[in-house]
Amino acid sequence: MGVTITMTKKSTTRRQILSSIACSATLAFSPTCLANSDRQLSTLRFLVASDTHLGYKNSTSAEKRWIQAAAELKSATGDLVLHLGDIVDGGREEQYLVYLREREKIGKPVYEIPGNHDPLALFRKHIREQVDVAVDHEWLKFVLVSNAHTDSHDGFLTNEQLKWIESQCVAATKQQQYVLLCLHVPAHSNRHPDRGWYVKPEHGQTELYNIIKRHKQQIVAMMHGHFHNGIRGWKECDGIHEICMPSVLYNLDRGLEKQNAAGYNPLEFRPGYTLITIDNGMMTLDYKPLAAKVAITKKCALERAWK
User: Fold this and answer.
1) Fewer CB atoms inside 10 A, N or C side of the chain?
2) How far is CA 52 from the centre of its chain?
3) Which residues contact 174 (CB under 8 A, 6 or more apart)?
4) Model pLDDT for residues 132-191, shown as the tens digit of each residue
5) CA distances from 130 to 99, 164, 252 (A)
C-alpha cells in the first residue's frame, strides 16, 4: 500500500531517495525508535507549502510565487518541507518541470501529496511512483495520503488506505512515535460559511475518525491544503487539530471570524507558507507571507497526544 521513509538531518538528495524507493519498499537511513514513554522529546521544525497551482490561468503568476517561495524555503529553518497538494493547476503536465526545477534549489527533503488538480498518473510520473508514504523523522511519523479526485472537491479514502493509515498508527505506537496525518482534502464536516469540501461519511470519514479515536494518544494533528483560506482549523475530534494550510498562490478572506464560524481562521490571507515548531506539547504555526515577515503566530496545544 505505502512505503516508509526514515530520515535524519543528514542531507540526502531527492534523487537518492527516489532511487532507494525504486529498489525497496522501505528506505531507512537510521533507526528512529524512541527510548521510553517519559523521554524528553527533541524540538522539531518543518515547513509546509500548499496549492502552488502552477500554470494558473495560463499565466506566469503562480510560477513567480513558487520561485519566491522556494527561495525562502531554502533559507528558512526546518528539517523538511511538506507540500499538501495542487502542485499544478488543472493537470498541466509541463508545469511539473517548473515545480521540480525550483524544488531542487530548496536543498531540503520535500514530500508531496497530490491534490484534486494533480492527476495520479502525472504525480507518479513526475513526483513519486509510490503515492501514499510514511516519513519517519526522529519521534514523528508523517503519514502522507492521497485523498483527492480530479473530478471533485470532496475527499475520498479507500478501505485499503484506511487499513494502511491504521497500520502506521500501530507502527508508531510500537516505535514510540507520534503521527501527523497529511491529506489534501480535510475530513472535518465543514459547512456554510465554510467551503463544504470534506471527506463525507460514505467516503471514509467515519472510519478515519474511528481510527483517530483508537489511536488518539499518538496523533498530533491532521494537516491539509485545498481551502485557500490562510490558516483554517478546528479542534473538535478528540482534541486533534485539523488544519488547512495557506496557499502559496492565493488565499481568500471568507469572513469566517466575523460570522463566528466554528474553529479558527486568523486574519492573514496573503500568499505564503507556514513554519511549524513542535516543542514541549505545543505546536506553533508561523504564517509567513511571501516577501514579508511572519504575520500570524497560532499556538496549538497538543495536550491530548502528550498526556
Assistant:
1) C
2) 13
3) none
4) 999 999 999 999 999 999 999 999 999 999 999 999 999 999 999 999 999 999 999 999
5) 19, 13, 33
Pairing of strands 44-49, 272-279: antiparallel
| CATH of the domain spanning 43-306, picked from 3.30.43.10, 2.60.40.1080, 3.30.110.40, 3.60.21.10 | 3.60.21.10
Q: How far apart are CA 98 and CA 58, in angstroms?
A: 13
Written in H, E and C, the secondary structure of 241-304 is EEEECCCCCCCCCCCCCCCCCCCECCCCCCCEEEEEEEECCEEEEEEEECCCCCCEEEEEECHH
In tens, the pLDDT along 35-85 reads 334 678 999 999 999 999 999 999 999 999 999 999 999 999 999 999 999
